[in-house]
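Sequence in, structure out.
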Amino acid sequence: MEIPKTVKVAGYNYQVEHCDSPFPVDSQVCDGVHTFSEQIIKVAKTGTEVYQRTVFLHELVHAIIGSYCANIDEHLNESFTEQFSKGLYQVITDNPDIFKPEEIEKEHDICPICRYPIPSCQCMYDHGIDRSKRMEVVFSHLHLLTPEQQKHVVRLQSEMNISYEDSERDHVYWELMSKNKCGIKI
């Protein structure tokens, strides 16, 4: 397991920084820290690489808990995080094939509208979500998509009855553009 330069938690892109020395936090010296307001995870370059990886996972678990379980008691949070991050590291290292790259969905196989794999696209099903605004933006930016995604979107465009609302269309447009600026293929 390599420590990434960025990691996405609850829709936020956290920068992962490696620091030369531990840092003070609430009158303690810590080898790792996460800051929700700045979306930064810091890991000190102390100890072995294995230790630094467990520190990273520890801070990552804090970020997840902070995003999804914000009301959890601080002492319970720390106790749980300490043990869970060690267990998570053990599972990841003892099962190296758990996240085989060929098993991970490739972006070109993902519907750019519903974000499901193209063979199981959900755009034609009514789940109470209006995907037409996203489709309008995606359709007007076909040049950014792979050929497989382009064919899929054109097929959906012809099969769906689309209505537009400017504010939602603009939101989807900026979401699409921000992903593209980061080099993420949609």
